[in-house]
Write a structure and sequence with these properties.
With 407 residues, this protein is an alpha/beta fold. The chain is built from 15 helices and 14 strands. The strands form 2 sheets. Strands 10-9-11-1-12-13-2-14 form an 8-stranded mixed sheet, sandwiched between helices. Strands 3, 4, 5, 6, 7 and 8 form a 6-stranded antiparallel sheet that branches.
Length: 407
Protein backbone atom coordinates (compact mmCIF):
# COMPACT_ATOMS: atom_id res chain seq x y z
CA UNK A 1 0.00 0.00 0.00
CA UNK A 2 1.15 3.52 -0.83
CA UNK A 3 1.44 6.50 1.46
CA UNK A 4 -0.47 9.76 1.00
CA UNK A 5 0.38 13.47 1.26
CA UNK A 6 -2.50 15.98 1.23
CA UNK A 7 -1.07 19.46 0.60
CA UNK A 8 -3.69 22.14 1.40
CA UNK A 9 -2.96 25.75 0.44
CA UNK A 10 -5.40 27.78 2.52
CA UNK A 11 -7.55 30.15 0.45
CA UNK A 12 -5.46 29.71 -2.72
CA UNK A 13 -8.47 29.60 -5.06
CA UNK A 14 -9.26 32.98 -6.60
CA UNK A 15 -11.06 34.87 -9.36
CA UNK A 16 -9.69 36.87 -12.33
CA UNK A 17 -8.26 40.17 -11.10
CA UNK A 18 -7.92 43.41 -13.12
CA UNK A 19 -4.43 44.14 -11.77
CA UNK A 20 -3.28 40.76 -13.13
CA UNK A 21 -4.67 41.33 -16.60
CA UNK A 22 -7.78 39.29 -15.89
CA UNK A 23 -5.83 36.30 -14.58
CA UNK A 24 -6.09 34.62 -11.20
CA UNK A 25 -3.00 34.67 -8.96
CA UNK A 26 -2.42 30.99 -9.79
CA UNK A 27 -2.53 31.74 -13.52
CA UNK A 28 -0.13 34.66 -13.09
CA UNK A 29 2.36 32.88 -10.83
CA UNK A 30 5.31 30.84 -12.06
CA UNK A 31 4.59 27.35 -10.70
CA UNK A 32 6.79 24.79 -12.48
CA UNK A 33 6.52 22.23 -9.70
CA UNK A 34 2.74 22.45 -9.35
CA UNK A 35 2.52 22.19 -13.15
CA UNK A 36 4.78 19.13 -13.06
CA UNK A 37 2.55 17.51 -10.45
CA UNK A 38 -0.65 17.95 -12.45
CA UNK A 39 1.10 17.06 -15.73
CA UNK A 40 2.20 13.72 -14.28
CA UNK A 41 -1.19 13.08 -12.69
CA UNK A 42 -4.73 14.33 -13.05
CA UNK A 43 -6.45 17.66 -12.63
CA UNK A 44 -9.91 18.45 -11.37
CA UNK A 45 -12.06 21.08 -9.72
CA UNK A 46 -13.64 20.70 -6.29
CA UNK A 47 -16.59 22.12 -4.37
CA UNK A 48 -15.16 21.60 -0.90
CA UNK A 49 -18.53 21.49 0.91
CA UNK A 50 -20.92 21.60 -2.04
CA UNK A 51 -21.61 23.71 -5.15
CA UNK A 52 -21.98 27.38 -4.24
CA UNK A 53 -21.47 26.77 -0.50
CA UNK A 54 -18.88 29.04 1.13
CA UNK A 55 -16.66 26.93 3.40
CA UNK A 56 -15.00 27.92 6.63
CA UNK A 57 -11.49 26.57 7.08
CA UNK A 58 -12.69 24.19 9.79
CA UNK A 59 -15.60 22.71 7.84
CA UNK A 60 -13.41 22.60 4.73
CA UNK A 61 -10.66 20.57 6.39
CA UNK A 62 -13.19 18.19 7.90
CA UNK A 63 -14.73 17.65 4.46
CA UNK A 64 -11.33 17.12 2.81
CA UNK A 65 -10.61 14.48 5.46
CA UNK A 66 -13.79 12.68 4.43
CA UNK A 67 -16.15 13.67 7.25
CA UNK A 68 -19.82 14.47 6.75
CA UNK A 69 -19.69 18.06 7.96
CA UNK A 70 -23.43 18.37 8.51
CA UNK A 71 -23.31 15.39 10.86
CA UNK A 72 -20.23 16.26 12.94
CA UNK A 73 -19.84 20.05 12.97
CA UNK A 74 -20.80 21.79 16.21
CA UNK A 75 -19.18 25.20 15.65
CA UNK A 76 -15.74 26.66 15.06
CA UNK A 77 -14.95 27.53 18.66
CA UNK A 78 -14.14 24.02 19.91
CA UNK A 79 -11.55 23.50 17.14
CA UNK A 80 -9.90 26.85 17.87
CA UNK A 81 -9.77 26.01 21.57
CA UNK A 82 -8.32 22.55 20.94
CA UNK A 83 -5.71 24.07 18.66
CA UNK A 84 -4.73 26.51 21.40
CA UNK A 85 -4.16 23.59 23.76
CA UNK A 86 -7.34 23.89 25.83
CA UNK A 87 -8.95 20.61 26.83
CA UNK A 88 -12.68 20.89 26.15
CA UNK A 89 -14.91 19.13 28.65
CA UNK A 90 -18.52 18.06 28.32
CA UNK A 91 -20.72 21.06 29.11
CA UNK A 92 -18.11 23.64 28.05
CA UNK A 93 -18.90 26.20 25.37
CA UNK A 94 -15.95 27.35 23.23
CA UNK A 95 -15.54 30.34 20.93
CA UNK A 96 -13.11 31.52 18.29
CA UNK A 97 -11.99 35.07 19.04
CA UNK A 98 -10.18 38.03 17.53
CA UNK A 99 -8.12 40.64 19.32
CA UNK A 100 -9.76 43.69 17.73
CA UNK A 101 -9.71 47.49 17.76
CA UNK A 102 -12.79 49.46 18.78
CA UNK A 103 -13.35 53.22 18.79
CA UNK A 104 -14.37 55.29 21.80
CA UNK A 105 -17.94 55.37 20.49
CA UNK A 106 -18.13 51.58 20.12
CA UNK A 107 -17.46 51.04 16.41
CA UNK A 108 -15.19 48.23 15.25
CA UNK A 109 -12.22 49.87 13.51
CA UNK A 110 -10.14 46.77 12.80
CA UNK A 111 -11.26 43.18 13.43
CA UNK A 112 -7.59 42.06 13.55
CA UNK A 113 -6.04 44.95 15.52
CA UNK A 114 -3.61 45.73 12.72
CA UNK A 115 -2.82 41.99 12.44
CA UNK A 116 -1.17 42.20 15.84
CA UNK A 117 1.72 39.76 16.22
CA UNK A 118 3.20 40.43 19.64
CA UNK A 119 1.90 40.84 23.18
CA UNK A 120 -1.24 38.73 22.78
CA UNK A 121 -0.10 36.06 25.25
CA UNK A 122 0.42 38.68 27.94
CA UNK A 123 -2.99 40.22 27.28
CA UNK A 124 -4.63 36.78 27.20
CA UNK A 125 -3.26 36.04 30.67
CA UNK A 126 -5.08 39.13 31.98
CA UNK A 127 -8.38 37.58 30.86
CA UNK A 128 -7.69 33.92 31.61
CA UNK A 129 -9.21 32.76 34.90
CA UNK A 130 -11.90 35.43 35.25
CA UNK A 131 -15.09 34.39 37.05
CA UNK A 132 -18.31 35.79 35.61
CA UNK A 133 -21.13 34.83 37.96
CA UNK A 134 -20.49 31.09 38.44
CA UNK A 135 -18.74 30.63 35.08
CA UNK A 136 -14.98 30.17 34.74
CA UNK A 137 -13.32 31.91 31.80
CA UNK A 138 -10.46 30.13 30.01
CA UNK A 139 -8.76 32.30 27.42
CA UNK A 140 -5.64 31.57 25.36
CA UNK A 141 -3.92 33.46 22.55
CA UNK A 142 -3.59 31.80 19.16
CA UNK A 143 -1.62 32.84 16.08
CA UNK A 144 -1.38 36.60 15.43
CA UNK A 145 -4.75 38.25 16.22
CA UNK A 146 -6.57 35.01 17.05
CA UNK A 147 -7.61 33.67 20.42
CA UNK A 148 -9.73 30.93 21.96
CA UNK A 149 -12.33 31.32 24.70
CA UNK A 150 -13.99 28.63 26.81
CA UNK A 151 -16.78 29.06 29.35
CA UNK A 152 -16.95 26.35 32.01
CA UNK A 153 -19.73 25.95 34.54
CA UNK A 154 -23.38 24.98 34.97
CA UNK A 155 -26.26 25.78 32.64
CA UNK A 156 -24.34 26.69 29.48
CA UNK A 157 -25.54 26.32 25.90
CA UNK A 158 -24.19 27.18 22.45
CA UNK A 159 -27.61 28.41 21.33
CA UNK A 160 -26.59 32.07 21.09
CA UNK A 161 -25.79 34.65 18.42
CA UNK A 162 -22.35 36.19 17.78
CA UNK A 163 -21.16 39.57 19.01
CA UNK A 164 -18.71 40.04 16.12
CA UNK A 165 -20.38 42.13 13.37
CA UNK A 166 -17.84 40.73 10.82
CA UNK A 167 -17.50 44.23 9.35
CA UNK A 168 -15.66 47.41 10.24
CA UNK A 169 -17.45 50.66 11.12
CA UNK A 170 -20.20 48.62 12.75
CA UNK A 171 -21.02 48.46 16.48
CA UNK A 172 -20.29 45.35 18.52
CA UNK A 173 -23.42 43.23 18.57
CA UNK A 174 -25.26 42.12 21.68
CA UNK A 175 -25.44 38.34 21.88
CA UNK A 176 -28.95 36.95 22.00
CA UNK A 177 -30.20 33.52 22.99
CA UNK A 178 -31.55 31.57 20.03
CA UNK A 179 -33.31 29.13 22.39
CA UNK A 180 -34.35 29.57 26.02
CA UNK A 181 -31.38 27.38 27.07
CA UNK A 182 -28.97 29.98 25.71
CA UNK A 183 -30.07 32.95 27.83
CA UNK A 184 -27.41 32.50 30.52
CA UNK A 185 -24.58 31.98 28.03
CA UNK A 186 -25.58 35.06 26.01
CA UNK A 187 -25.56 37.12 29.22
CA UNK A 188 -22.13 35.78 30.22
CA UNK A 189 -20.73 36.40 26.74
CA UNK A 190 -21.87 40.02 26.77
CA UNK A 191 -20.31 40.43 30.24
CA UNK A 192 -17.04 38.97 28.97
CA UNK A 193 -16.88 41.32 25.98
CA UNK A 194 -17.42 44.37 28.20
CA UNK A 195 -14.87 43.09 30.71
CA UNK A 196 -12.32 42.47 27.97
CA UNK A 197 -12.66 46.07 26.83
CA UNK A 198 -12.21 47.39 30.38
CA UNK A 199 -9.09 45.30 30.98
CA UNK A 200 -7.42 45.62 27.57
CA UNK A 201 -7.87 49.37 27.19
CA UNK A 202 -5.69 49.82 30.29
CA UNK A 203 -3.20 47.07 29.49
CA UNK A 204 0.44 48.30 29.22
CA UNK A 205 0.88 46.62 25.83
CA UNK A 206 -1.98 48.62 24.33
CA UNK A 207 -0.80 51.83 25.95
CA UNK A 208 2.59 51.21 24.33
CA UNK A 209 1.01 50.36 20.96
CA UNK A 210 -0.95 53.59 20.92
CA UNK A 211 2.15 55.56 21.87
CA UNK A 212 3.89 54.05 18.82
CA UNK A 213 0.95 54.86 16.54
CA UNK A 214 -0.28 51.26 16.33
CA UNK A 215 -3.84 50.07 16.67
CA UNK A 216 -4.62 48.82 20.18
CA UNK A 217 -6.08 45.36 20.69
CA UNK A 218 -8.64 46.82 23.06
CA UNK A 219 -11.50 44.32 22.83
CA UNK A 220 -12.10 40.61 22.26
CA UNK A 221 -14.72 39.66 19.67
CA UNK A 222 -15.85 36.03 20.10
CA UNK A 223 -17.79 34.09 17.47
CA UNK A 224 -18.59 30.56 16.38
CA UNK A 225 -19.64 29.22 19.77
CA UNK A 226 -19.97 25.46 20.00
CA UNK A 227 -19.67 22.38 22.17
CA UNK A 228 -17.07 19.63 21.91
CA UNK A 229 -17.61 17.53 18.76
CA UNK A 230 -17.69 13.75 18.94
CA UNK A 231 -16.14 12.36 15.76
CA UNK A 232 -14.39 9.12 14.88
CA UNK A 233 -10.64 9.44 14.56
CA UNK A 234 -8.95 9.08 11.19
CA UNK A 235 -7.49 5.75 12.28
CA UNK A 236 -10.96 4.47 13.23
CA UNK A 237 -12.43 5.66 9.93
CA UNK A 238 -9.63 4.81 7.50
CA UNK A 239 -7.26 2.45 9.32
CA UNK A 240 -4.41 4.88 8.64
CA UNK A 241 -2.05 6.62 11.04
CA UNK A 242 -2.19 10.29 10.06
CA UNK A 243 0.13 13.20 10.90
CA UNK A 244 -0.52 16.92 10.52
CA UNK A 245 1.90 19.76 9.75
CA UNK A 246 0.12 23.05 10.49
CA UNK A 247 0.85 26.28 12.30
CA UNK A 248 -2.56 27.93 12.42
CA UNK A 249 -4.51 27.23 15.60
CA UNK A 250 -7.80 26.31 13.96
CA UNK A 251 -6.32 23.64 11.68
CA UNK A 252 -4.33 22.21 14.57
CA UNK A 253 -7.61 21.96 16.47
CA UNK A 254 -9.27 20.08 13.62
CA UNK A 255 -6.29 17.70 13.58
CA UNK A 256 -6.57 17.06 17.32
CA UNK A 257 -10.30 16.39 17.05
CA UNK A 258 -9.67 13.91 14.22
CA UNK A 259 -6.95 12.07 16.14
CA UNK A 260 -4.20 13.35 13.83
CA UNK A 261 -0.74 13.54 15.41
CA UNK A 262 0.63 17.07 15.16
CA UNK A 263 4.24 17.33 14.01
CA UNK A 264 6.28 20.24 15.34
CA UNK A 265 8.18 22.10 12.63
CA UNK A 266 10.39 25.00 13.79
CA UNK A 267 9.27 28.17 12.04
CA UNK A 268 5.76 26.92 11.27
CA UNK A 269 4.05 30.10 12.43
CA UNK A 270 0.66 29.90 10.73
CA UNK A 271 1.36 33.32 9.16
CA UNK A 272 2.99 34.68 6.01
CA UNK A 273 6.44 34.16 7.50
CA UNK A 274 5.96 30.42 7.98
CA UNK A 275 8.82 28.13 6.94
CA UNK A 276 7.27 26.46 3.89
CA UNK A 277 10.37 24.44 3.06
CA UNK A 278 10.47 23.27 6.66
CA UNK A 279 6.85 22.11 6.39
CA UNK A 280 7.63 20.11 3.24
CA UNK A 281 10.64 18.53 4.92
CA UNK A 282 8.59 17.83 8.06
CA UNK A 283 5.97 16.07 5.96
CA UNK A 284 8.57 13.83 4.31
CA UNK A 285 10.03 12.96 7.70
CA UNK A 286 6.57 12.20 9.11
CA UNK A 287 5.94 9.73 6.27
CA UNK A 288 8.59 7.46 7.76
CA UNK A 289 6.19 6.33 10.48
CA UNK A 290 2.76 7.50 9.28
CA UNK A 291 0.53 6.36 6.44
CA UNK A 292 -0.68 9.86 5.57
CA UNK A 293 0.41 13.45 6.21
CA UNK A 294 -1.73 16.58 5.94
CA UNK A 295 0.17 19.83 5.27
CA UNK A 296 -1.55 23.21 5.66
CA UNK A 297 -0.10 26.54 4.50
CA UNK A 298 -2.15 29.54 5.60
CA UNK A 299 -0.41 32.42 3.76
CA UNK A 300 -2.50 32.59 0.52
CA UNK A 301 -5.65 33.09 2.57
CA UNK A 302 -4.11 36.06 4.37
CA UNK A 303 -3.22 37.78 1.10
CA UNK A 304 -6.74 37.14 -0.19
CA UNK A 305 -8.32 38.67 2.91
CA UNK A 306 -6.01 41.67 2.59
CA UNK A 307 -6.91 42.09 -1.12
CA UNK A 308 -3.28 41.87 -2.22
CA UNK A 309 -3.10 39.93 -5.52
CA UNK A 310 0.59 40.59 -6.14
CA UNK A 311 1.46 39.34 -2.66
CA UNK A 312 -0.66 36.27 -3.31
CA UNK A 313 1.26 35.60 -6.52
CA UNK A 314 4.56 35.84 -4.61
CA UNK A 315 3.26 33.52 -1.86
CA UNK A 316 2.12 30.95 -4.43
CA UNK A 317 5.58 30.99 -6.01
CA UNK A 318 7.13 30.29 -2.59
CA UNK A 319 4.68 27.42 -2.06
CA UNK A 320 5.65 26.05 -5.46
CA UNK A 321 9.26 25.71 -4.30
CA UNK A 322 8.03 23.76 -1.25
CA UNK A 323 6.01 21.49 -3.54
CA UNK A 324 9.21 20.93 -5.53
CA UNK A 325 11.08 19.97 -2.38
CA UNK A 326 8.29 17.54 -1.50
CA UNK A 327 8.28 15.91 -4.93
CA UNK A 328 12.07 15.53 -4.86
CA UNK A 329 12.20 13.80 -1.48
CA UNK A 330 9.01 11.77 -0.88
CA UNK A 331 9.21 7.96 -0.96
CA UNK A 332 8.63 6.47 -4.40
CA UNK A 333 4.98 5.65 -5.04
CA UNK A 334 3.54 8.23 -2.62
CA UNK A 335 0.15 9.64 -3.60
CA UNK A 336 0.31 13.46 -3.60
CA UNK A 337 -2.80 15.64 -3.69
CA UNK A 338 -2.54 19.43 -4.02
CA UNK A 339 -5.55 21.66 -3.44
CA UNK A 340 -7.06 24.52 -1.42
CA UNK A 341 -9.63 24.44 1.35
CA UNK A 342 -11.62 27.27 -0.22
CA UNK A 343 -11.33 30.31 -2.46
CA UNK A 344 -10.41 33.68 -0.96
CA UNK A 345 -10.51 36.02 -3.97
CA UNK A 346 -8.45 39.20 -3.68
CA UNK A 347 -11.31 41.10 -5.33
CA UNK A 348 -13.64 40.03 -2.51
CA UNK A 349 -11.44 39.92 0.59
CA UNK A 350 -13.23 36.91 2.05
CA UNK A 351 -14.18 33.30 1.46
CA UNK A 352 -16.47 32.44 -1.45
CA UNK A 353 -18.19 29.32 -2.74
CA UNK A 354 -16.11 29.16 -5.94
CA UNK A 355 -14.59 25.72 -6.56
CA UNK A 356 -10.87 25.15 -6.02
CA UNK A 357 -8.28 23.46 -8.25
CA UNK A 358 -7.17 19.92 -7.50
CA UNK A 359 -4.25 17.82 -8.71
CA UNK A 360 -3.44 14.22 -7.72
CA UNK A 361 -0.38 12.27 -8.77
CA UNK A 362 0.30 8.63 -8.03
CA UNK A 363 2.85 6.49 -9.87
CA UNK A 364 1.11 3.90 -12.03
CA UNK A 365 -2.28 5.66 -11.99
CA UNK A 366 -3.95 7.44 -14.87
CA UNK A 367 -2.89 10.85 -16.16
CA UNK A 368 -4.73 13.35 -18.33
CA UNK A 369 -3.97 16.29 -20.62
CA UNK A 370 -3.80 18.95 -17.88
CA UNK A 371 -0.47 20.81 -18.07
CA UNK A 372 -0.94 23.79 -15.73
CA UNK A 373 -2.14 23.99 -12.17
CA UNK A 374 -4.77 26.72 -11.92
CA UNK A 375 -8.53 27.10 -11.54
CA UNK A 376 -9.27 27.04 -15.29
CA UNK A 377 -6.80 24.41 -16.51
CA UNK A 378 -7.68 21.93 -13.76
CA UNK A 379 -11.39 22.23 -14.53
CA UNK A 380 -10.76 20.31 -17.78
CA UNK A 381 -8.95 17.45 -16.01
CA UNK A 382 -9.84 13.79 -15.69
CA UNK A 383 -10.98 14.05 -12.07
CA UNK A 384 -13.89 16.21 -13.19
CA UNK A 385 -15.81 18.25 -10.62
CA UNK A 386 -16.03 16.56 -7.25
CA UNK A 387 -17.18 17.39 -3.72
CA UNK A 388 -14.53 17.66 -1.01
CA UNK A 389 -15.77 14.64 0.93
CA UNK A 390 -15.03 12.49 -2.14
CA UNK A 391 -11.30 13.32 -2.13
CA UNK A 392 -10.33 10.90 0.65
CA UNK A 393 -11.84 7.80 -1.07
CA UNK A 394 -10.13 8.81 -4.33
CA UNK A 395 -6.73 9.11 -2.65
CA UNK A 396 -7.19 5.87 -0.74
CA UNK A 397 -8.09 4.06 -3.96
CA UNK A 398 -4.95 5.37 -5.67
CA UNK A 399 -2.93 4.26 -2.65
CA UNK A 400 -4.36 0.73 -2.76
CA UNK A 401 -6.11 1.26 0.59
CA UNK A 402 -9.77 1.24 -0.48
CA UNK A 403 -11.98 -1.58 0.76
CA UNK A 404 -14.30 -3.39 -1.59
CA UNK A 405 -17.89 -2.19 -1.45
CA UNK A 406 -20.29 -5.12 -1.65
CA UNK A 407 -19.75 -8.80 -2.38
Amino acid sequence: MKKIVLFICDGMGDLPHPSLGGKTPLQEASTPHMDELVSRGQGGIMDVIGPGITPGSDTAHLSLLGYDVKAVYTGRGPFEAAGAGIEILEGDVAFRCNFSTISSDGLVLDRRAGRIREGTKEMASALDGLMLEDIEVIFKAGVEHRGALVFRGPGLSASISDVDPHEIDKPVLVSQATTPEGEKTARILNLFVRKSQEILEEHPINIDREARGKKPANIILPRGGGVVPHILSMRERTGMSVAGVAGVTLVRGVCRAAGIELIHVPGATGGRDTDMMGKAEGAVKALQNHDMVLVNIKAPDTAGHDKEPLDKVAIIECIDKAVGRLLDTIPEGTVVALTADHSTPCSVGGHTGDPVPLAIFAEGNRSDMTKQYDEISCSHGGLGRIVGRELMPIMMNMAGRAEKYGA
